[in-house]
Design a protein that fits this description.
The protein is mainly alpha-helical. Helices cover 60% and strands 0% of the residues. It has helices at 8-11, 18-45, 55-70, 75-84.
């Protein structure tokens, strides 16, 4: 898959600092990746503790689950798409005095 470049000037047009938005995108990408990892671990946890009698069948099912997660777009790309479509919300933490 070819790499798409981002127009950083376009990203800052809606207001706000474009570099802050890059940080927000990176944090959102980490959230997406962590969520995917939890989902994958949860689905693969089902296969723990089974006997070795049907090991081949379980390996095929585990492989299919893993491949379905590999086919998903990269977390960073999805975070960028969310930001460009205006689906990302963020807030600043309260400042303590």
């Amino acid at each position: 898959m070819p790499v798409k470049t981002l127009d950083l000037d376009k990203m800052g047009e809606e207001g706000g600092n474009k570099y802050e938005k890059i940080v927000i995108i990176s944090k959102r990408a980490r959230q997406i990746a962590a969520q995917e990892k939890l989902e994958l671990d949860e689905k693969l946890k089902y296969f723990e503790g089974f006997e070795d009698e049907d090991e081949f069948t379980f390996n095929e099912e585990q492989e299919q689950i893993s491949k379905s997660f590999e086919k998903l777009p990269h977390a960073t790309q999805r975070a960028v798409d969310e930001m460009m479509e205006g689906k990302t919300t963020y807030r600043y933490p309260e400042k303590e005095l």
